[in-house]
Write a structure and sequence with these properties.
Elements lengths: L14 H13 L4 H15 L21
Helix pairs in contact: 1-2
Length: 67
């Protein structure tokens, strides 16, 4: 079940990519879902897009300055 205030959607993903996401998530002590969300935010920040709705909460290592 999705967290309150979060949009849930189905995602089809290559099994090899899923395995890599699992590896990265385990290394960073995150769930795969949290890892995907982190990487999406990171990608947006690299493009200069500020993501709305973070609720003031930041992931570890996220300085919030878009870099």
């Amino acid at each position: 079940m999705a967290s309150p205030g979060k949009k849930a959607f189905p995602l089809r993903i290559d099994p090899a990519l899923w395995e890599e996401l699992q590896r990265l998530a385990a290394r960073d002590l995150r769930s795969v879902n949290a890892q995907i969300e982190f990487m999406l935010r990171e990608g947006l920040a690299r493009r200069g897009v500020k993501h709305p709705g973070a609720g003031g909460k930041r992931d570890a290592g996220d300085s919030g300055d878009g870099e």
